[in-house]
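Design job #97: recover the sequence.
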């Protein structure tokens, strides 16, 4: 049992079932910022009223506030003395307030010293804000909760030379000059919003402007603000904005509601981006891109994240969440919307593969570990810890299932009803589901369990063919493992898309009772066990189950190798075609891992390699899909399939199979590489060219495993030819060259750094590629990079690249038997926690999974966790995660 040290105060826990509406609301707030050093002066003037529906007898008003210096409080123009209010570390309590009054508060804050990057802070020479979830209370005292919606007016005063651009939410309504070289601007947001959507930016930026004409004919000014010298990397971002705006109009009927839409790119940012009303603040990583500096993956992510934050304008801003327990109401829904956008933008099968891979590598382990929680949690200590893949990605899968159950047309009607019914409100998940039910007539009572039950369900499926009756019956059983605080799970409503293939790989029409025959059928599993019978099946079929990954579950069906080969070769569903190959590869890997552990010789599964050969020689498969079909399950994924993770066996076996594939398919890999390689062609971002690059580079990765001088030179040639022109090809070649662990590795790393050392985002790639290297010397290299001029522990992107790249993406080198990797993470976490608890909390995950490893590694990881939690000054963010994982 975990025991807190004597000097540790147990942080308070917030519970969903204790929610109460606020006693007061803020009708409007007029903010005045004077940006100067060392302090910024913030003056807030609020119109506050007691809610008419409150039954509370208290006449006290509590306003949240953290790390603020209070100058004065005036209530209805009367200056309050210290007997009329109480200051605490959590906020400000004002005694005996009337039912309706005006409150003016002046505070001083120090953005220059704000390393948490929450509230108002400095990033290089810029001021910017991050107020979600609870950052606004670090700016001024306020009812900082999402169910208090307020109209904001913001005046900013600053030195005109240093800060010529002053931005906030809404529309610019005034500006002017002041004495001593200062100037002022005034912004007004006509829409009520919670304080977490407030934004302010000040600095000297380059800006690119464009416009968008809405479906109703309104002209919207678009602006992308970036650090000086980076305008040439904003074209893709601007095109992505317009693409997302048009898509949302066409697919959801949602038109933008302000006259201006702005995005600002900031180098120091905890998250990917923030959807502040009309003024989105982005991590530079998700804005800056051109073919020379960004990879295909970067281009796709930029388009997706820009769409995500824009879509929030309705799913999160116009309709917001009542409390933070409803976080998936905006994040899960908006992830689903941006994924749908991406499916329409790039190849849908490839996009779905990436989504499911991410879910399995991050959310499934979360669901199976000590930090498991439902899509709508029941409690939290630190809300920042619940910006998780369960809230976001599993939440998106829940929305996807609703669309599958309702059908796309009914789902669209339900979304229209949801937006119109709740526009301008702070609502709950029940409100969302009720809109789905009311618009479609479908009962989703049982389905709601997806929001309240944690854990990943498992489906056990058996198939029985009756030759005499020509029927095929699927028997499906569902179960869900116990998770912390939840046992004896209830059966869920699970939509399962299925198809049947004959022995030639052709689709079979599905006849079920008197329903219209279909090639794809969605089964609605609601009981612990159900049977589904298909008639007029003339021969034993092979089922294609859970097509498009129609539910976030683990599926077990006793496929033979021939079944998997048939699906891999012929399934018309691209996702399931890839999935069959992954299952076959997983089977091979786990068998060889068992052999390795028993010290048996490792054989080559020629049948499996033959399946890959057939796919590689099939000219009918799209290049992007084929590249994914040729990619083995990652070491992290294989680890999740083992009761006790054996990192050494996983690494040795996977490397063995990769090398075997490379040897057996060498001529075909080399031929495919040459067919796809066009070194003189300028970089183009489109599906066809991305697919060619992905296929070419997976072939190169295999070939370079052969340690053949010709292929090493091929990789070096690609690196040098692409270094200034095509970052996708550069990174692919560099990754393989670094894994060679030779003098060439050092040479190309130095060449890459010397070429791009002034480009922070590219240097982060340089850090990450070394952190994830297979080289046995990686741990020592990572330690040395912590002292390199390119690394700054105060910058989240650099922490994610180096520490995250090593601890979260390099299974075998992080889990070195000596425990040095754990010690490195421990020391880094304690240093980070004093600077930026949010970032520290995002890095701790590998240690929280300690129970999944062998007893030796368990002891070593547990020791680090116990050491961390005993520190007197550990943050709520870290304390919550460590304490839960040690139980």
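Job complete. Output follows.
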């Amino acid at each position: 049992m975990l025991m807190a040290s004597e000097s540790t105060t147990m942080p308070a826990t917030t519970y969903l079932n204790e929610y109460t509406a606020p006693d007061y609301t803020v009708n409007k707030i007029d903010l005045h910022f004077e940006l100067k050093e060392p302090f910024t002066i913030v003056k807030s003037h609020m119109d506050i009223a007691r809610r008419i529906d409150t039954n509370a007898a208290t006449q006290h008003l509590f306003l949240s506030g953290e790390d603020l210096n209070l100058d004065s409080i005036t209530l209805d123009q009367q200056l309050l003395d210290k007997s009329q209010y109480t200051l605490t570390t959590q906020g400000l309590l004002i005694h005996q307030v009337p039912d309706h009054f005006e409150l003016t508060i002046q505070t001083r804050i120090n953005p220059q010293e704000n390393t948490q990057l929450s509230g108002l802070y400095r990033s290089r020479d810029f001021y910017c804000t991050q107020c979600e979830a609870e950052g606004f209370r670090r700016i001024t005292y306020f009812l900082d909760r999402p169910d208090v919606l307020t109209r904001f007016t913001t005046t900013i005063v600053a030195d005109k030379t240093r800060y010529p651009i002053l931005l906030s939410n809404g529309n610019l309504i005034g500006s002017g000059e002041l004495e001593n070289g200062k100037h002022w601007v005034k912004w007004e947001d006509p829409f009520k919003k919670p304080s977490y959507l407030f934004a302010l930016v000040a600095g000297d930026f380059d800006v690119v402007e464009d416009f968008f004409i809405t479906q109703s004919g309104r002209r919207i000014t678009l602006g992308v603000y970036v650090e000086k010298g980076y305008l040439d990397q904003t074209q893709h971002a601007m095109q992505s904005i317009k693409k997302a705006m048009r898509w949302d109009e066409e697919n959801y009927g949602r038109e933008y509601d302000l006259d201006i839409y702005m995005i600002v790119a900031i180098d120091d940012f905890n998250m990917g981006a923030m959807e502040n009303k009309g003024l989105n603040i982005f991590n530079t990583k998700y804005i800056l891109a051109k073919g020379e500096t960004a990879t295909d993956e970067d281009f796709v992510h930029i388009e997706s994240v820009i769409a995500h934050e824009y879509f929030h304008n309705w799913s999160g801003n116009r309709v917001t969440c009542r409390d933070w327990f409803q976080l998936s109401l905006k994040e899960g829904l908006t992830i689903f919307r941006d994924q749908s956008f991406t499916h329409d933008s790039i190849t849908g099968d490839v996009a779905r593969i990436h989504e499911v891979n991410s879910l399995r590598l991050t959310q499934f382990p979360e669901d199976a570990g000590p930090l498991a929680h439902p899509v709508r949690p029941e409690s939290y200590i630190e809300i920042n810890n619940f910006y998780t893949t369960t809230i976001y990605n599993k939440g998106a899968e829940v929305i996807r299932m609703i669309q599958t159950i309702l059908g796309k047309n009914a789902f669209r009607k339900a979304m229209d009803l949801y937006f119109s019914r709740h526009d301008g409100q702070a609502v709950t998940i029940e409100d969302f589901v009720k809109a789905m039910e009311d618009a479609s007539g479908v009962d989703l009572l049982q389905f709601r369990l997806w929001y309240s039950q944690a854990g990943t369900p498992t489906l056990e499926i058996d198939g029985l063919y009756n030759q005499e009756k020509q029927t095929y019956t699927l028997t499906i059983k569902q179960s869900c493992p116990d998770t912390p605080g939840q046992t004896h799970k209830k059966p869920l409503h699970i939509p399962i898309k299925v198809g049947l293939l004959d022995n030639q790989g052709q689709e079979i029409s599905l006849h079920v009772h008197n329903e219209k025959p279909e090639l794809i059928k969605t089964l609605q599993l609601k009981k612990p066990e159900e049977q589904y019978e298909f008639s007029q099946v003339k021969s034993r079929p092979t089922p294609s189950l859970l097509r498009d990954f129609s539910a976030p579950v683990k599926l077990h069906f006793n496929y033979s190798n021939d079944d998997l080969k048939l699906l891999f070769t012929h399934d018309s569903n691209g996702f399931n075609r890839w999935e069959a190959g992954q299952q076959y590869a997983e089977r091979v890997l786990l068998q060889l891992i068992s052999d390795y552990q028993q010290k048996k010789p490792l054989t080559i599964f020629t049948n499996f390699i033959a399946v890959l050969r057939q796919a590689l020689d099939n000219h009918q498969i799209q290049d992007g899909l084929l590249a994914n079909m040729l990619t083995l399950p990652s070491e992290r994924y294989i680890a999740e399939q083992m009761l006790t993770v054996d990192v050494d066996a996983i690494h040795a076996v996977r490397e063995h199979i990769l090398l075997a594939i490379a040897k057996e398919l060498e001529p075909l890999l080399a031929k495919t590489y040459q067919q796809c390689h066009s070194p003189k062609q300028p970089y183009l971002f489109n599906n066809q060219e991305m697919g060619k690059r992905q296929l070419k580079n997976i072939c190169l990765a295999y070939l370079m495993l052969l340690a053949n001088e010709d292929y090493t030179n091929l990789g070096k040639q690609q690196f040098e030819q692409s270094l200034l022109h095509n970052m996708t090809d550069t990174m692919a070649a560099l990754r393989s060259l670094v894994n060679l662990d030779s003098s060439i590795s050092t040479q190309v790393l130095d060449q890459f750094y010397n070429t791009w050392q002034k480009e922070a985002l590219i240097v982060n790639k340089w850090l990450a590629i070394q952190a994830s290297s297979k080289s046995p010397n990686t741990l020592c290299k990572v330690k040395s990079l912590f002292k390199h001029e390119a690394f700054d522990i105060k910058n989240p992107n650099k922490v994610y690249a180096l520490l995250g790249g090593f601890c979260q993406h390099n299974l075998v080198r992080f889990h070195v038997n000596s425990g040095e990797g754990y010690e490195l993470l421990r020391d880094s976490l304690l240093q980070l926690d004093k600077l930026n608890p949010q970032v520290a909390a995002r890095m701790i995950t590998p240690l929280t999974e300690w129970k999944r490893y062998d007893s030796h590694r368990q002891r070593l990881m547990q020791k680090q966790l116990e050491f961390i939690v005993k520190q007197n000054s550990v943050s709520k963010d870290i304390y919550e995660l460590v304490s839960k994982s040690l139980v």
